[in-house]
Amino acid sequence: MRTLEEAKKAVIEDFSMYDEWLDKYEYLIDLGKNLEPYPEDKKTDDKLIKGCQSRVWLDSKVEEGKIFFSADSDAIITKGIISLLISVYSGREPKEIANDDFGFIGEIGLKENLSPTRANGLVSMIAKIKELASETASMAADEVLTAEDAKALAPLYDNVVLALKQVYDPEIPVNIYDLGLIYELIINKKHEAFIKMTFTAPTCPMADEVLAQVKECVADVPGITGCEVELTFEPPWDQSMLSDEARVELGLD
Questions:
Q1: Is 235 helix (H, G, I), strand (E, B) or coil?
Q2: Beta carbons within 8 Å of 19's beta carbon, 6+ residues apart
């Protein structure tokens, strides 16, 4: 992935290819057309960016310490603008975004060549992106574990693992932990558990029931204050992820 400075430089170079702003608007329109589809169920009032004449929805998620944005708008130029911002900032560390001055926007002359209402909307988009990044950066800082924290959480972690071993795959008679279906288990300073897991096949007919069972059994562990479960199929599960106990139980060794 390009660095932030490289990404901003690329945008400046792209805009410099066009002499007329009419052509630059067409470039923005093309960006909007290529924006990743935004889920209809996330077009809610809490995702709307205030200050934009057109409706602009912005959502974010954090994966492996980086913040990813998704967005949509009901106006084609505005959709292109938010697409431009996402192309530069999505997938970066929150602190890096929060500390950036977004100065490249001035270099390409975008704000000055928009109508007053669209220019105000651009300012609001930038402010919202920085706000989400700042909030995420602050949360991450609050949840950093010291060595002492990690040591104190070890028994709690073990109890969560024991709870997970009470949940069995609906098709294979082995618990989900020894099957290798738990890809990630994190417990933060607030004693909230975050679990990323998979299934042996994407078509598991009881996926919802198992996910609910995982969340319930972990949340019931004494000391755990909350539990979030994320389903993923990357990487796909295979037998190499089985524990030694599971391999013996299944007669594979």
A1: coil
A2: none
Quick: pLDDT tens for 8-50. 999 999 999 999 999 999 999 999 999 999 999 889 999 999 9
Phi, psi (rounded to 5 degrees) for 15: -70, -30
Q: For residue 51, how many other CB atoms are within 10 A of its CB? A: 15
Contact residues for 230 (Cβ-Cβ < 8 A; gap 6+): 194, 195, 196, 197
Residue 41 Ramachandran class (φ > 0 left, ψ -120 to 50 alpha, else beta): alpha
Three-class DSSP category at 127: helix
Active site residues: 52
And the tokens for 51?
């200050």
Tokens of 133: 């990044």
For residue 13, CA distances in Å to 9, 75, 110, 190 come to 6, 25, 14, 46
Nearest to 162 by CA among 146, 145, 173, 178: 178
Does pTM top 0.90 for this prediction?
no
Secondary structure of residue 208 in the 3-state scheme = helix
Other beta carbons within 10 angstroms of residue 96's beta carbon come to 15
